[in-house]
Amino acid sequence: MSTKTLPGRGDTNQQSTAGPERRAERRRLPLRGLARGRQARAAWILAAPFLALFATFMLLPLVWSLLMSLTDTSSSDLRTPLNVSFIGLDNYVRLFQDEQFFTALRNTAVFVLVALPLTLAAGLAAAVALDRGIRRFRAVFRVGFYLPVITSIVAVAVVWKTLLEPRAGLVNLVLGWFGIDGPAWLADTRFALPVMIVMAVWRNLGTVMIIMLAGLQSVPQSLMEAAELDGAGAWQRFWRVTFPLLRPALLLTAVTTGIGYLQFFDEPFVMTDGGPLDSTLSATLYAYKQFGNGNYEMASAASYVIFVLIVALTVLQFRVLRDKD
Amino acid sequence: MSTLSTRPTPHHPGTDRVLRRRRIRRTWGQPWLYIPLAGALLLMIAPFLWMLSGSFKPEADIRRVPPVLIPTAPTTANYGELFSRLDFTSMFANSVTVALAVTAGNLLFCSMLGYALAKLEFRGQRAVFLLVMGTLMIPGLVTFVPLYVLVSNMQLSGSLFGLILPFLAGPFGVFLMRQFISTLPDELIDAARVDGCRELAIYWKIILPLTKPALATLGIITFLGSWNNFLWPLVVAQNESQYTLPVGLALASSGQSFTRFGILLAGAVVVLLPVMVVFLVFQRQFVAGIATTGLK
Question: Which domains does chain A have, with CATH numbers?
Answer without folding.
Answer: 32-91 (no CATH), 93-321 (1.10.3720.10)
